[in-house]
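Repro:
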Amino acid sequence: MDDFHKTRRLPPYVFEQVNRLKAKARAAGADIVDMGMGNPDLPTPQHIVDKLVETVQNPRTHRYSASKGIPGLRKAQAGYYERRFGVKLNPDTQVVATLGSKEGFANMAQAITAPGDVVLVPNPSYPIHAFGFLMAGGSLRSIPANPGPELFDALERAVVHSIPKPIAIILCFPANPTASVADLDFYRDVVAFARKHEIYVLSDLAYSEIYFGDVPPPSILQVEGAMDIAVEFTSLSKTFSMPGWRMGFAVGNERLIAALARVKSYLDYGAFTPIQVAAAAALNGPDDCIRETRAIYKKRRDVLIDSFGRAGWDIPAPEASMFAWAPIPEQFRHLGSLEFSKLLIEKADVAVAPGIGFGEHGEGFVRLGLVENEQRIRQAARSIRKFFEEADSDSKELSKSDA
């Protein structure tokens, strides 16, 4: 594999090392509490499943579908944006259905990137944000993952020092993996900067509905002028607990949407039509299931922060997303996030995602997914507490013997 140009550009997938260790432990009979992958464990709401079952009975729906999404689905996504954000979209020219937001990002990268093009990517960041452009032949320049003056300083430096000038800025709020959030004032500043320097903005809003405060996360497209330079990616995976259905969207700037639609037309025929019909039913249907899902994640977050804190691991409470971004406890920091993650599997039967897997600036942290129930989260906390206590005891014994 190393002989191929594009795979040579990709670093080792560090999550695979953790996954192998996790599989080995399970094969040996260990009960692993798995908080490593952001893989929702909640069932898809019944009315969405019922629509899928109803539609799949019609043989006509088994034929090739529409690459950019069936008209009813694109209208449903436009309706969601108008209700939720007050943003009007033309379903024919400003909405494309994607096979999850991951595929949308990867194919947008293929559509707009020429060899050597510079793209500004948060670090740490969800891997496809960086490696979609790397595989497309682009060059990456890191920017801070959290909104604030440091990010804008980095943008200014990038415009001055990057040759050629950057073509795009990637944003992700609520952020994966850091769970940080952005407000409309931040987006206004980004839009002003991007329009001034003629740079596109690609915004990942996959966690728009998983928030725990009173203010819902905004869309960059709410900002006046954003439609000139921005495309936003959303997904039904987390909002409706539909990760395996692979249903997402790209919306916004017509030129970018047209480029993405053209690339997709050569690569796929879109998702299976019954999935698209069921996805439209999700978007057009009642939103009480979204509120229930949000409440479950909030309760899990609270249990995680409380129980892990009691176990001796202080973790900042995330304001949004289905993740906690946890600093490695001081006594284990020298190990690095990958070795600490391996140790948690071996000694505590708990799986987490090492921060280094999200970029070098993720080192010193691990990401914990709220994808186990409250009882299992407390079980993980008890195991971690025991592991910490044993590690402290071993450390004291070692200190005595050294003395």
